[in-house]
Specification:
With about 300 residues, the protein is of the alpha/beta class. It has two domains: about 200 residues, 3-Layer(aba) Sandwich (Rossmann fold), CATH 3.40.50.720; about 90 residues, Alpha-Beta Complex (UDP-galactose 4-epimerase, domain 1). It has a seven-stranded parallel sheet with strand order 3-2-1-4-5-6-10, sandwiched between helices. Strands 7, 9, 11 and 13 form a four-stranded mixed sheet that branches. The protein has a two-stranded parallel sheet with strand order 8-12. Helix 5 links the parallel strand 5 and strand 6. It comes from Aquirufa antheringensis. This is NAD-dependent epimerase/dehydratase family protein.
């Protein structure tokens, strides 16, 4: 049986991946390495939780020595796009350098498979194409996007130098269960504010349109690509459709009519328009996503349960 490491496995996307594995019958042991175990979260029986910081080389070395991993899933990110450019040194020190350290540890312990969750919004920057393919020129406009793109390049370098097989998934904007951040993830934050009777601030006029993906669907992409034997590829993972923020607000108001918003000037580091072309993903596996309205309903149910 495989033993896999999930760095950042107690975060939003990590918990969705573990839930996917549990629902579909996990065929591997999983070690979650993360800063903390969230309150109220019970890991499945196939998961071993180890508390720590992946920037800590000694802790990481001990982890790799103890467990002999077959594959590493890198889900960790300690900063968000909106504030990443306010402390660029911190972004480099907490995201780029630890990722290089992680790959050094993979090299040392002869672990040759890596899956990295990148971002399909921030690495491309502001675009002119209606749908963006993986070979579209990347011009990130935030430190977050620059670091994600730099990590992608270093992964490709390690693949060439040290024969590490990788998969880089450029995700669109995820929402859904296990979300906890008060600052990133506009759909969950909007639903949460609607349920609390709070006014949400919209940066800009609400016309900014982005691709949103139900977080529970991401596991299907990860699992499908691995089982198809896809390696050394960078692949967009999204819905392939864009929704404006104003349209999202209308759909939330249709379900939670008391929801109110206020508009303020847009932030310079926020990508205004992005929709991912998922043709490449669909060519490598069967890709079917949850409809937005169904995913929104599930997100409202989740956020209601959290508030109670």
């Amino acid at each position: 049986m495989e033993k896999n490491l999930v760095v950042g496995g107690s975060g939003f996307l990590g918990l969705n991946w573990l839930a996917y594995l549990q629902q579909h019958g996990a065929d591997s042991e999983v070690v979650v390495f993360a800063h903390e175990k969230p309150a109220g979260v019970e890991f499945p029986s196939f998961v071993t939780f180890v508390q720590g910081d992946y920037a800590d080389a000694l802790a990481l070395d001990d982890l790799f020595s103890t467990h002999h991993f077959d594959r590493v899933f890198h889900f960790a990110s300690s900063i968000i796009p909106a504030i990443s450019s306010e402390n660029i040194r911190q972004d480099i020190e907490s995201n780029l350098l630890p990722t290089i350290g992680l790959m050094e540890m993979m090299k040392k312990h002869q672990v040759s498979k890596l899956l990295y969750l990148s971002t399909g919004g921030a690495v491309y920057g502001n675009v002119t194409e209606e749908k963006v393919k993986e070979d579209y020129p990347c011009k990130p406009i935030s430190s977050y996007g620059i670091i994600k793109l730099a990590v992608e390049h270093y992964i490709e370098l390690y693949a060439k130098l040290y024969q590490i097989d990788y998969l880089i998934l450029r995700l669109s904007n995820p929402f859904g269960e296990f979300h906890r951040s008060p600052k990133q993830g506009v759909i969950n934050i909007a639903v949460r504010k609607a349920l609390r009777g709070e006014v949400m601030t919209v940066w800009g006029d609400g016309s900014q349109a982005k691709d949103y993906i139900y977080a529970a669907d991401i596991g299907q992409a990860i699992d499908g690509l691995i089982k198809a034997g896809v390696k050394n590829e960078t692949i967009n993972v999204g819905s392939g459709e864009s929704l404006s923020l104003n349209e999202i607000i209308k759909r939330i108001q249709a379900k939670l009519p008391a929801f109110q918003v206020e508009y303020k000037d847009a932030k310079l580091t926020d990508v205004q328009k992005i929709c991912l072309d998922t043709t490449k993903l669909a060519s490598k596996m069967s890709w079917e996503i949850t409809s937005f309205d169904q995913a929104l309903e599930a997100t409202i149910t989740y956020e209601k349960a959290r508030l109670s």
